Amino acid sequence: xxxxxxxxxxxxxxxxxxxxxxxxxxxxxxxxxxxxxxxxxxxxxxxxxxxxxxxxxxxxxxxxxxxxxxxxxxxxxxxxxxxxxxxxxxxxxxxxxxxxxxxxxxxxxxxxxxxxxxxxxxxxxxxxxxxxxxxxxxxxxxxxxxxxxxxxxxxxxxxxxxxxxxxxxxxxxxxxxxxxxxxxxxxxxxxxxxxxxxxxxxxxxxxxxxxxxxxxxxxxxxxxxxxxxxxxxxxxxxxxxxxxxxxxxxxxxxxxxxxxxxxxxxxxxxxxxxxxxxxxxxxxxxxxxxxxxxxxxxxxxxxxxxxxxxxxxxxxxxxxxxxxxx
Length: 326
Description:
This protein is 22% helix and 16% strand. The chain has helices spanning 9-13, 16-33, 63-85, 127-130, 156-163, 182-185, 274-283, and strands at residues 38-42, 92-97, 134-137, 196-201, 204-210, 213-219, 228-237, 312-317. The strands form two sheets. Strands 1-8-2-3 form a four-stranded antiparallel beta sheet, covered by helices on one side. The chain has a four-stranded antiparallel beta sheet with strand order 4-5-6-7, with no helix packed on it.
């Protein structure tokens, strides 16, 4: 039994160095035993309340939020330096990512406008919440580059198992949420394997993203706003309206479900089984219409990002197997 602490503000302010120490010991132990390892390092920041450690207070010109961003950056460097010191840099997959966009509501008033041009933030149904940073490093295996392809945090499970040579460990006796993007991440293919994801808040299925299109049956403006059901679902083309301020204007409101223009116009749907096509469109709100999805061509590019509240650092050392968690 380990001693535990009361998580008050001061403990919260200074807890991350303890996490870093434990992570370092875990890596040292794996190195000494010549064993692969897995570390899920969930930094306590930049989640509210934002409380920078003493050495980072007032070190930026952006208030406590920016101080904490610098702290996360510095702490992450400590972990990367530890990999270098142990000689594990070239044989370790490192992922820096987050699970939602920045807080734009009452929790961090000094953080307003953090989503940039995107509408909404933490807990909203808009792209300021859905689009978050994702950075991956694996020297010699992943070439430097950037992409705005769609990828979800659940996709890392099958992707990493494939990347470390353990495809057989991906369950085949059930449906899993994740898609394997190992070829996309390592540059063997241009596009990711995900073209949609459903959006849930509490028990509500509030909308769906499908390629460059988005359908909302409910909307939530920010973290303290109510869940509002829409009388007529909002449909956005995120390529031409990335700030989501002008939903599709239905000529006849009650026939919105028959709007064929919402249909994807990218690479078609020939590779999607018919039952799954129907399920996707039912999920998006097209329950009442028998849709005929015909692949057509377009010159519009796909828009999206990878999966930021408290930043997450994850490390995977490739090998025959991996064991343990932090």
